[in-house]
């Protein structure tokens, strides 16, 4: 059972994916964390992020490992735990420039496919291009959406009091960059089920996705 969950930032993808995987005994992969991890490594190593050629040349260098237990997902770069550093404002504001580079996408996509192939009990994979590009044969594809206001309110709540307007502008900018890049942009697969989470609680979204998975089993 492979479940692909895509959608823009702040739609509840991570919380939903983790909870659904835990409830159904599936593995869990946060593909955004992998793009954040490679971005963190590039910042840490002084790669010029204004130069796609420099990003491409460095794309194969760091070793990125993802732990897929939904109760305790992990992410390391060259053996360093980067779960905290990849959530900083600096990485968040730079990740779209790195994730748009085709060499980065090829590298990370291969990693994602190999993790999904080796997940014996099945896996929930969340991201932006899982249903369209990474795992087009997924058993179930879900595309989560929500209004920009709802997404910004959730994100600023997570960031403990961050300004809602500034968060909203940053989200819209990142979604626009992710949706307009040439290589595997953020997009709903033609055969994905769209779930608008604007008016739903997290628990309702989880229940909705669990029901959809059970119908496919
Ligand atoms: O999901 P999260 O907000 O952590 O993703 C961070 C960034 O990683 C996104 O803004 C996007 O640039 C990139 N990403 C991607 N493809 C994915 C997952 C994330 O390009 N499948």
From TrEMBL:
GO terms for cellular component: cytosol. It is found in: Cytoplasm. The keyword Transferase applies. Its EC number is 2.7.4.25. GO terms for biological process: nucleobase-containing small molecule interconversion; pyrimidine nucleotide metabolic process. InterPro entries: Cytidylate_kin, Cytidylate_kinase_dom, P-loop_NTPase. Residues 3-214 form the Cytidylate kinase domain. It catalyses: dCMP + ATP = dCDP + ADP; CMP + ATP = CDP + ADP. GO terms for molecular function: ATP binding; dCMP kinase activity. Gene3D superfamilies: P-loop containing nucleotide triphosphate hydrolases. SUPFAM superfamilies: P-loop containing nucleoside triphosphate hydrolases. ATP binds at residues 7-15. The keyword Zinc-finger does not apply. This is Cytidylate kinase. It comes from Streptomyces longispororuber.
